[in-house]
């Protein structure tokens, strides 16, 4: 949770950004965040046709989507409009945003589809383990190596680097689909980020599962929600 560690430092800036939106419904801000993520996914999917200049728009849209994702919670807390329904909608929109972003980037041609799929599985498992702790009455669990803020920052940075490396700089690669090599396999910047999502996401999911399990009473009886689904 690298990005979350800077939240206290960023709080004064978040307060300023939240002021123009204090009259907005928090759910509306969550919807804007999802819309921006969807636009980023569409832009990424068009890179194969329109060129890598679109990665600049992808990076900007992911960043703005992340800003609105933070603002919905800030506005809800500052205006006393926090609610279980709002929290539920926020989590649903976040999961759909994760889905469309990964699929859109995979469609760009600059990410291995198998790696992208495994990254998506890790991201969904990470979020699931956090909400599962909440479902068991332990509160939402955010700890681990990979929070949502972390992955949005990394995705925006990776998209920007793909744009930057497409410019005629002296360090620009001549083979855009094989910038990094490991065991003879070429990786793009986005591939590297997705591989990190796989590793850090699985570690985070297992860490959250272990912590949730250890916080459960040893002889807890099965509740009404127990069993497989």
Task: Describe the 3D structure.
The chain is an all-alpha fold. It has a single domain (3-167, 176-214), classed as CDP-alcohol phosphotransferase transmembrane (TM) domain (Four Helix Bundle (Hemerythrin (Met), subunit A), Up-down Bundle). It is built from eight helices and two strands; from the N terminus they run αααααααββα. The protein has helices spanning 7-18, 26-45, 47-50, 54-78, 84-106, 113-135, 148-165, 189-214; strands at 180-182, 185-187. A two-stranded antiparallel ribbon has the order 1-2. α2 (26-45) packs antiparallel against α4, α2 (26-45) runs parallel beside α5 (84-106) and α7 packs antiparallel against α8. The longest helix is centred in the C-terminal third of the chain and has 26 residues, at 189-214. The mean pLDDT is 85.
Please outline the helices and strands.
Elements: H1 7-18, H2 26-45, H3 47-50, H4 54-78, H5 84-106, H6 113-135, H7 148-165, E1 180-182, E2 185-187, H8 189-214
Antiparallel strand pairs: 1-2
Helix pairs in contact: 1-4, 2-4, 2-5, 4-7, 5-6, 6-8, 7-8
């Amino acid at each position: 949770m690298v990005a979350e560690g800077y939240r206290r430092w960023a709080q004064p800036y978040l307060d300023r950004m939240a002021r123009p939106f204090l009259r907005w419904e928090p759910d509306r801000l969550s919807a804007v965040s999802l819309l921006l993520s969807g636009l980023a996914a569409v832009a990424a999917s068009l890179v194969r046709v329109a060129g890598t200049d679109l990665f600049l728009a992808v990076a900007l849209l992911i960043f703005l989507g992340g800003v609105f994702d933070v603002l919905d919670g800030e506005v809800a807390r500052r205006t006393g409009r926090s609610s279980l329904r709002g929290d539920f909608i926020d989590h649903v929109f976040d999961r759909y945003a994760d889905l469309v972003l990964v699929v859109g980037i995979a469609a760009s041609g600059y990410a291995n589809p198998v790696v992208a799929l495994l990254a998506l599985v890790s991201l969904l498992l990470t979020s699931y383990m956090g909400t599962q702790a909440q479902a068991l009455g332990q509160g939402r669990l955010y700890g681990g190596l990979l929070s949502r803020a972390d992955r949005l920052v990394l995705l925006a940075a990776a998209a920007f680097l793909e744009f930057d490396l497409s410019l005629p700089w002296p360090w620009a690669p001549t083979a855009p689909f094989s910038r990094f090599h490991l065991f003879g396999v070429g990786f793009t910047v986005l591939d590297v980020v997705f591989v990190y999502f796989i590793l850090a996401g699985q570690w985070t999911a297992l860490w959250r599962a272990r912590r949730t399990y250890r916080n459960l009473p040893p002889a807890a009886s099965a509740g009404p929600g127990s069993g497989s689904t």
